[in-house]
Amino acid sequence: MESLESTLPLLACLVPLLAVPAIAAIGERSPNVREGVTVLAGIVTLTLVVTMLKTVIDGHLLRFTFIEVLPGVAIEFRVDGLGILFALVASSLWILTSIYTAGYMRGTHEANQTRFFSFFAVSIAATLGVAFSGNLFTLYLFYEILSLSTWPLVTHHGDKEARGGGRTYLTYLMGTSIGFALPAMIYTYIKSGGSLDFTAAGVLGQSLTGMEASVLLLLFVFGFSKAGVMPFHSWLPGAMVAPTPVSALLHAVAVVKVGVFCIVRVFTGVFGIDLLSELDAATAVSWVAGTTVILSSLIAMSQDNLKRRLAFSTIGQLSYIVLGVSLLSAHAVQGSMMHIAMHAFGKITLFFCAGAIFVASGKKYVSQLGGLGKAMPITMGAFAIGAMSVTGVPPTGGLLSKFYLVWGAADAGQFALLAIYLVSSVLNGVYFFPIVYAAFFHPAPEGDPPVKGIREAPFACVFPLFLTALASVLLFFFPGLLLDLTRLIAGAG
Amino acid sequence: MSPAVFQLASISAKFNYWIYIILMMIGLFAMIAKNNLIKKLIGMTIFQTAIILFYVSIGVKEGATIPIIEYETLKEYNSQKTGYGAKPDIEPQDYDNPLPHVLMLTAIVVGVSTLGLALAIAQRVFDQFGSLEEDEILEELTHPKPAKEPANG
Amino acid sequence: MAEHAPVLIVLSPLLGAILVMLTVRLGSVAAWVIALVATATSASAAIATLGRVLQAPEGVIRYQLGGWAPPMGIEYRVDAINSLVTIAIAIVGFLSILYTRSCATIETPSKQPQFYALLLLLMAGLSGVTLTNDAFNLYVLIEICSLTSYGLIAMGTRRAVLASFNYVIIGTIGASFYLLGVGYLYIKTGSLNMEDIRGMIAANETLAASATIEVAFVLMMLGVWMKMALFPLHGWLPNAYAYSPTGTSAFMAPMVTKVMVYVMVRVMLGVFGVDYVFGSNWANVASVLATIAIVAGSVFALSRRDIRRMLGYLIVAEVGYMVGGAWTATQAGMTGAIYHILSDAAMTFCLFLAVGIIIHRTGRHRLDAFDGLFQKMPLTMTLFVIGGLSMIGLPPTCGFISKWYLVQGGIEAGQWHFVVALLISSLVNAILFFRIFERAFFRDIEFESLETHHDPEKAATVLKKVPLSMFIAAAIAAASLFVIGIFNHNLTTWIRAALVNLNL
Lengths: 493, 153, 504
Description:
The structure holds 3 protein chains of 3 kinds. Chain A is mostly helical. Chain A is about 75% helix and about 5% strand. Chain A has helices at about 10-25, 30-55, 80-110, 115-130, 135-155, 160-190, 210-225, 235-240, 245-270, 275-280, 285-300, 305-325, 330-360, 370-375, 375-390, 395-410, 415-440, 460-475, 480-490; strands at about 1-5, 60-70, 75-80. Chain A has a 3-stranded mixed β-sheet. In chain A, a hairpin with a 2-residue loop joins β2 (about 60-70) and β3. Chain A is globular and about 65 Å long. The model of chain A has no long low-confidence stretch (mean pLDDT about 85). Chain B has 6 helices and no strands. Chain B has helices spanning about 5-15, 15-35, 35-60, 70-80, 100-130, 135-140. Residues about 150-153 of chain B have low confidence and may be disordered. In chain C, α15 (about 330-360) runs antiparallel to α22 (about 470-485) and α17 packs parallel to α22. The two termini of chain C are about 35 Å apart. The mean pLDDT of chain C is about 85. The chains are: A mainly alpha, B mainly alpha, C mainly alpha.
């Protein structure tokens, strides 16, 4: 693969950052212009990403080295198939979320909207930084920036509950990244003889024993706790105190996907799949992730708060991805990468729906949603599509990634883990479809405020969720791009 | 020599070390354990003096004299030095090592200035708290008296 | 002129101090200007010296004071490490004097020239300590630093006097131990020149194995540890920094303990030599002590409500970082320790400057001073946040880089307790600072109490707005955290080259 020097990845990260002063300067004086700036920045970013996309599909790598920070380790950008895929998902969904946020925040009359939009832009910049990181150090750098810049978003309401959620959020994310990921990274640096670059063969060579590799891998998996692998998952339901757009973009797409993205990078770039299978080091991770998948699905069934149910569903789906890479077979790794995108579109649809329901009716609980389908047909229809995609029902994109994951599990000969995928898919259905069924076919529960007065949420809320639901379906019929990009990394035929 | 006598001999042979260590411990004890700030400072002075004594004592040689060359000897030396093969009359082992003594001049100056500064600070402590006893000062800090009388009068 | 640059680093603040005292009658502004000029001269001399050091063969230049050759005469030995430390001293000194102008008028209105004179003397002492290659000269300079710091601390509030007195006692014991150690060294080697002594110890095995040398080593280490406040010898530090004038603590907190850490490194590598020090039985003791210091300092900091006391305990923990790093006996750990001298100086400086502004603006010195500050003083608060993030050790600040090297050294040396302590301390710092950020972010500020103080006496001690000079100093300090962090590669390369020169 030929690599080209290019400042495009740097620019893509800088554009959202440059929007921050503009957003802050405009402030509350003119909300329309402020949101316009956000959307504009999103469009510019997306354009940059698409420009890079062409080069990457042609089989090139884009590189940009900023400055050498540690011997042999620089702040470095490198764009490959996986990175561009993730950046594409994040930047396109940022535009939709901005539109949605405008509708939501005005609909619920939130305070401090300027602060909200500013930190939102910083978070996107950090997410793109993670996507384009050329080595583990740069990855960690942006990972931490993301933790910090999302904290004001999680605690946005500023009340006691939000502050508690924010505290849990930071304690888990920073505690694990400093406590586990940092020492693991330094250990890797020592063992690899001073390199943290991502290469397909890995940097570690033959320096580790199987035991060391297993422990190191577990440290990374727990250290990047944005991936929500149990037992370091509790921050995610806690962070649901945030306004719904935050939950939607950050906790269904950016933050959590950054976590799994980091883990995928560690598997494929730092260790290398071949080394891991040679050492048989990923088994522990497989079982931890497998347990997380089942447990979180079971917990999700018992949650009445809609957003919390979605949060636990997310935890399970993230561990699908972790489990996928830990299977170490080409198809499973490819499935994992695809699932990053598929699940992003499906889950953001669900969160958008939850927010739209809250804006339109003030309802937060699953038990209140009966009969809502008649009042909000578009929203609940999109919810159904999102649920189908997350569960893996055709014709939605979720089926494809799950198909690859299961295929990979069969390749690897791990039939117990394959069973986990199947069982949990059933469980997904169990905790999602009753909601859809009740919304369309049940009458409203008694004692609740009547459903009659409720109409669809504002256009700015409904339009994005319509688009993301559409995207989930389209990805089923036109997955070519996704397959090409993931194949570049996974090396599958 | 019996072991006891041998030990005694080795102790007495290095008596200067024992003196300085005993003095130093007395000083250290006063600095840490005494309640009165002035007594602490007295301890500090003893402590520093002990070290000065130690330095002075290491410069001493058996049978040597103070490191000052008499005028007569120097004249003789200068006249002898010119002659070939002449053996100078001035031997280093006849004189004590002057360097530790010189060093201690500086250390004494440092010690004096530390003491002076410390006494000034102690005076300010007395102005502020109306006492030089550590426990009374701490008591005053934790439970300040409602109306403090002007200290010193 | 250029060959005299090393001595100019020390002389210009020394002469500045004398000049300030001679011109007391001209008033505080004149004193301030003289102090600024003196520190600026010192800073440029230090930078010029670094330039010469980097070009010098072997990266070392020597300067013989008064032309007297060693071992009789006193010699300055300048390599990349100590010229970097002197640059840090001079720049921190310059910025703190710039910063102090506004708060000195409140805190020590009648003694401003004296304050500047003492600060300059302290700077001269610290630079001298860093540069000198003579073991006894080092003692004298340490005492010059100590005497001036006693005075500077005692200028503070009521409790500062008592803190200063305690510091006198502990400081004197520490310096005396060091002096005693030098005495034992002199008995065995008959020399006071550091390199001379190192050469003798390295060349002579029976000398290296003698108990006298070991006693000397232990005494000197004990003395230096007391002066740098290594736990459990830290008792004097938190109170001294909490109650002294803000300008004093802003200069002393970053520099005094750090320079003493450098002295420790110098004694280890420059006087006794790598082989002796790391071959001794004391390496494990020191490393365990450092670990305890890190954990204890962090835990004590958690329970403190006074901002500067809290920061004081953090310094106790940071001292543990550096001692532990130096005693990993690895090049990475030593690089981390020395790099941390610079980076910790920068971040402590940034924090103390920001806190000083906050204390003077709000009139409070406990954690409640931070309530709602993001709305009221967003810029100052941003500086504090930057300092805090660096203290936690987040990239790309310098705190991260030093932690990286320290952890790397700990892992390479197999000192896992040290590694774990470093990580725990990072986590504690995270809790500590985010607790404050949360206050500043969400607590409602009592605007009234900030604007109008009912107590007229108190109102006189509160700044009406943040003076530009204070803010600029703090902003430069905060920016330096990123600069030192991102562009650390040059620094660490120079440090490593100098370490190789010292056989590590």
